[in-house]
Amino acid sequence: MRVGAFLLSAQFPGQTHAQALERTVAATVAAEAAGLDAVWLAEHHFVPYGVCPDAATLAALLLGRTRRIQLGTAVSVLSTRHPVSLGEQAALLHLTSGGRFTLGVGRGGPWIDLSVFGSGVAAYEEGFAERLDLLLRWLRGSRVGADGPQFSFPEVAVVPRAMEPVGPLGVELADWLGLPTAPALRFPRQRSEDRRAEPRPAEPAAGRGARAGGPPVVVACTSPGSVRLAAERGLPMLLGMHSGDEDKLAMLTAYRAAWRAAGRGEEQLAEVEREHVAAGVAQVADRNLTARQVLMDAMPAWFEYGLGAHRTVDGRERRMRDPHAYTRLLCDLHAVGTARQCADRLLATAERTGIRRFALLAEGSGDQEATLHNIARLGAEVLPQLG
């Protein structure tokens, strides 16, 4: 099982934006020290629910602060981003980090962001598939053009190419100069821009550790349409915190049906299903009631303060969950309690659904020191029980 931290850069009441972001940086360093598999970063605009407006940019900083841990976006919102710009960022992070970056993308919501960034409601309601397809072509190709309702431009070269091998796989500069071997002096092999001589890149593997194939891409799925889209494109899903095991199982069943309807093979299905990610909450304490109380004391005010600040793009009605009831639901669904209870909860989800990859909200206390302590306990006390 692979367990990562999910960090929203949440601004709890009374905190500054800088404090929320500082907690994210410190928590990422702590997650690597604790042995967690990954850190997943959220992005939001204009609301204190999360004060990171560009998860890929923050990932770039954190990739530089760490050496082993994977960094992923959960998610980069395609409804307000140009897919080529995001693809360039993703390729850059993939190639310069040694393959430690995962691009999570989603449709977002009907928020005022659509008006501010000029993409409009249509990008949210109808345009996600076109945006995702353009992004994937950019990440998997060497030259890309577009002729669609949202994006139309002549073919251009993809630079840098995400499909290039990661790591020092070029020729030795010292060898080329006839000098003694100097391993530090390496340059990537240059590839011809002549497309007639260039082989078509292979489909990227879904599994971990590939040295080529571009950054892994996952799709946030909250509706039958997004599940079907992910399956048809052969991409793993990121499932939200509000989903219990039965909801996850229903979405996985729909995913398999859409996968087979698209004519995809069973062997690749098994490979991709290992990459599904389930978002959740983790709070470790010596007693179950203590862990729940930590979250009940902090999260409702944050939900009310943060989620309540969302504005719709066109004045449409929105209904906000009761923050106390929602916090109780998250405590019931996820890894909240003693280390043994947290491990049992994760193992139960894995057994019921087959999902073995988790992104767990670890900052639910709202306090930096408590968050770092929670992450340390997650690594030291929960991970060893997962096998």
Helix and strand arrangement:
Elements: E1 2-7, H1 17-34, E2 38-41, H2 55-65, E3 70-73, E4 76-77, H3 83-96, E5 101-106, H4 113-116, H5 121-125, H6 128-140, E6 143-147, E7 152-157, H7 173-177, E8 217-221, H8 224-232, E9 237-239, H9 245-261, H10 266-273, E10 277-284, H11 288-306, H12 323-333, E11 335-337, H13 339-353, E12 357-361, H14 368-382
Parallel strand pairs: 1-2, 1-12, 2-3, 3-5, 4-5, 5-8, 8-9, 9-10, 10-11, 10-12
Antiparallel strand pairs: 6-7
Helix pairs in contact: 1-14, 2-3, 3-6, 8-9, 11-12, 13-14
General description of the model:
- This protein is of the alpha/beta class.
- It is 42% helix and 15% strand.
- The protein contains 14 helices and twelve strands.
- The chain has helices spanning 17-34, 55-65, 83-96, 113-116, 121-125, 128-140, 173-177, 224-232, 245-261, 266-273, 288-306, 323-333, 339-353, 368-382, and strands at 2-7, 38-41, 70-73, 76-77, 101-106, 143-147, 152-157, 217-221, 237-239, 277-284, 335-337, 357-361.
- Strands 1-2-3-5-8-9-10-12 form an eight-stranded parallel beta barrel, surrounded by eight helices.
- A hairpin with a 4-residue loop joins strand 6 (143-147) and strand 7.
- Helix 13 crosses helix 14.
- It starts with a strand and ends in a 5-residue tail after the last helix.
